[in-house]
Design goal:
alpha+beta; Thiol Ester Dehydrase, Chain A; 5 helices; 35% strand; elongated
């Protein structure tokens, strides 16, 4: 398949963007999401985390929090590349799998906050049949405050010969 060729397996109009098509500095966004109490409880169910500060409103109020305190991983999952327009837009980056992830949690996130995740290509290292794409990840809240920053290294397919 040639650069930017339409891939019938991805759906009408989607173009495959292989490792060679990517550029350092290129960015994608993930949909903004307001963290409702329902999302907190869905995360609790999925993770098995029972920490009271994440699910007990009275405890949070007693500690002076404006709402439930989000678990760090609840914030982190907002940076999933598959949720970004890297895969949702008119193109698709064929990530085989994630190799590494690191993050720093800089500001608390509470129920009612709207999060704005973004991914930016920070580095590209070619290999024989794949390449390693390093993404800088950020999550800002509705006030523009940086709540999370991190890095994801993912294995990306190179263009078939």
């Amino acid at each position: 398949m040639t650069a930017g060729a339409e891939d019938p397996t991805l759906g009408r109009g989607k173009k495959v963007r292989y490792f060679e098509d990517l550029q350092v500095g290129e960015s994608w966004t993930c949909p903004a999401r307001t963290h409702t109490e329902a999302l907190f409880f869905a995360f609790q169910l999925a993770s098995g985390d029972m920490g009271e500060a994440h699910y007990n409103m009275e405890l949070c109020k007693a500690r002076g929090f404006p709402g439930l305190l989000a678990h760090g991983f609840q914030v982190l999952i907002q940076t999933c590349p598959g949720a970004s327009d890297m895969s949702r837009g008119g193109s698709h980056v064929p990530i085989r799998f994630v190799l590494e992830q690191s993050s720093r949690f800089l500001k608390p996130v509470f129920s009612g906050d709207t999060l704005h995740p973004a991914l930016t290509v920070a580095d590209l290292k070619p290999q024989r049949t794949t390449g390693v794409m390093t993404l800088r990840t950020t999550v800002h809240n509705q006030r523009g405050e940086l709540c999370l920053e991190g890095e994801i290294k993912a294995l990306v397919e190179r263009r078939p010969s």
